[in-house]
# Entry
Amino acid sequence: MTDAVLVTGGAGYIGSHACKALARAGYLPVVLDNLSRGHRQAVRWGPFVDGDTLQRERVVKALREHRAAAVMHFAAYAYVGESVTDPALYYHNNLTGTLSLLDAMREAGVDKIVFSSTCATYGTPDSVPISESAPQRPVNPYGETKLAIERALHWYGEGHGLRSMSLRYFNAAGADPDGEIGERHEPETHLIPLLLQTALGQRPGIDVYGTDYPTPDGTAIRDYIHVTDLADAHVRALAYLLAGGASGAANLGTGRGHSVREVIAAAEKLSRRPITQRLTGRRAGDPPALVADPRRAEALFGWRAQMSDIETIIGTALAWHGRG
# Structure
């Protein structure tokens, strides 16, 4: 019998890619999404349940009807700036919604969850690359809610036997190599889609926030990870838990960073078009560099990024944004 997995937020960017990876690995992804920020057309590999994590009875029903073996939890708001201006929205949706989900799992007898966490739980790191043992000091409500969930998972494990794997992403980017799904946020805030939309004439230019960082070219450095590699990590983490693996947390990154100017140069080269830039000041809370130490993910469940070189990331994203 095929193992069903409830995928909250499965109509979103990373969730939909995880659903495709789950289906390829022989699982049945059951998507729970209220479509407030996801897209119905991205649900292609299993059943769709219109709802959200705050609707406990609906979650219990979905878990029971599909006999879910585990949950992959992506459903969350993820705009840092919005979290600062409207923290109540983030605490209610991200944290309260997750606690509701965990209680629904208890009621339905499901005791395994792969959680979409973030490097934002680290805040401004003391050094890079960042290991999982680094202090977690978030500098915005988005990161705070994710860290609160990680802590709740620990204590639900202690008190109720829940087993979990928290995957702390660095900068998700790229698109499905087959062109079936890709990145589409409203509004868009991520660097690579903004660059490509500019190159394709869909927006007039981009803002470069900060050119005076203590980095080789003065712009901020980030660790970019292809969304297909992220999806693969979720499937491997799930298999690890289903095989009896212990709860934990793991970074998902490459161990190598690229500056904003390096990413712009790569986007210009691959698109063969100049990208208009406006140099502006730093954004509050933006660290100079965020780069992962990804070795724990390899040690725990055999994962290593396979297609996260910057050319592949930008190339697949360009094909997605330039379709039609």
The chain has a mean pLDDT of 96. The two ends are 39 Å apart (CA to CA).
